[in-house]
Amino acid sequence: MCPQAAAGGRRAASRAPGAHSVCRLLTRRAHGFYARDAGVAHRKNLGLLRRIVCQGSTKFKNVWTTHSASPIAYERGRIYLDNYQCCISSIAQEPRILYQKPKCSKSEKIEDALLLECPLGEMLPSPSDYKSSLIVLTVQNWLLRLSADSGEILEKIYLAGSCCKFRYLSWDTPQEVMVVKSAQNKLPAAARQAGIQQSVLFYLAVFQVLPLSFIGMLEINKKIFGNSVTDVAVSNGILIVMYSMGLVRLYNFQAISEQFMEQPFDLGHEFNWNGQVGVVGKYPFGLPCNIKITDTPPLLFEASSLENAFQIGGYPWHYIITPNKKKHKGVFHICSLKDNALAKNGIQDMKCCSLEPDWIYFHPDMSGRIIHVGPNLIKVLKLKEVKNNTDQMEIAEDFTIVANRENSVNNAVTVTASGRVVKKRFNLLDDDPEQETFKIVDYEDELDLLSTVAVTQIGADGRAHLDFHCNEHGILLKSIPLLESWDVTYSHEVYFDKDLVLHIEQKPNRRFSCYVYQMVCDTAKDDECSSHEKKEKVFCKKGGRIFEYT
């Protein structure tokens, strides 16, 4: 072949159709992008759902309501009643009971629960591990893993005898490492008067989940951590110890477990421990306390804050505290975790005059932003470098959301019909019920929407609406009126989960109500979904429970 032909062949090959596209595709694959993978399809579907949710013709209809004499919990499309003995699917337009167990005795009462979901890309030992399950903690120190759809017991672990009472479940690392915490050990008054000393304040049991495996149990001892410890937690690999004078101390939990673990144990295996012979996680022995802290561990960080309020987040790492004096309540300091330097504009104070204080937290969307919520104002703040000084960060306003107070009743001077001028001797509070006030702010991560609940109550009749805002710019995209009356003196929870809105209300005398709203795409002009006019209610009985339909 002549050189020209060869060169021409090479040129022809370099211009082959789609060659550049193939190279780009291979490069995108190397970085984890592939047009046909499930993640891309899921993201596209969620983008479509977001547009449907926010379009003008979409309504949210109150499809059914139920009431209970015990607390109501919600987790991922499932509503739990009767201390988790009854589970109802919230997905269908009519309530569908997934399971209903007989009423349990007081000794079987569930103290706390966590939803456990299957990790992606991992081989698990049992087929049941690939389905959602519920980890529950009973009053008798049993840790149970239940099927989320049937309530069947999949695993059963006995934690400890009467030496401690385990009461709380939390995540160290979500869906990976779980922490079971005891109530604070307190001696009876008679024992204290007799001079008996109690040195162990809390017990913590730590587990890896799916498959469920025991990492270790440790005790928080006042001889090591001091007499004034009031609470303790493990989060993101950090042991957090809180004290009565507002002090918060952080320790490396992994370093503690490695340094002070006396012996590792596996669930279901026989053990001989301090003269006791038994099976790990079985009655009556339970779990051994195999992490014995014999000396004060190295301190990572400490800060003093009013009511132990302490948060870490942002990029680079910052923390939020309130100066440890009552007069500073409602004042927040945002400081660098690296050197404790206060950020420029790092003192945030809304100067609210209200019964309920404003609150602040790092945005859960992992953007490093900060959300500061007051009675009539939501500020989304961001960290950015100070101009001409890359070592210092400043707090800048990203966007704000303001309550609708056009019809404000807080006029200092009013004029009567006869022309007489009347001056008020007092001003309304910033969160006066007669003015629209923000009560709840949440983030829907799958649709990337910021949701707010604002309430106005005149007399006994309170009205609330749930608004969806663009998470990036704060633009109002959708407003949904909640049809039931909202009493600001009651406790309320509102969940927005893709195409579902759930309102759980706690009334006096332990009366709980659950209102379920579902997305309805209707181009008709009637506005029955958002009308506050009283409609006829239909009652239906399922599984011994009464449901209301509008």
Model description:
Helix content is 11%, strand content 45%. By secondary structure, it is mainly β. Among the domains are: 34-68 and 430-522, no CATH class; 323-402, no CATH class. The model is unreliable at 1-20 (pLDDT under 50). A six-stranded antiparallel β-sheet has the order 34-35-36-1-38-37. A four-stranded antiparallel β-sheet has the order 2-3-4-5, with no helix packed on it.
What is this structure, in a nutshell?
The chain is mainly beta. Among the domains are: 34-68 and 430-522, no CATH class; 323-402, no CATH class.
Number of strands: 38
Unreliable stretches (pLDDT < 50, length at least 5) are 1-20
Mean pLDDT: 87
**What is the SS-derived class?**
mainly beta
Cα separation of the termini: 84 Å
**Helix proportion:** 10-25%
- Give the strand order, joined by hyphens, for the main sheet: 34-35-36-1-38-37
Largest sheet: 6 strands, antiparallel
Structural Rg: 28 Å
Individual helix count: 6
Strand percentage lies at over 45%
Overall spatial form: globular
Q: What is the chains' assembly state?
A: single chain
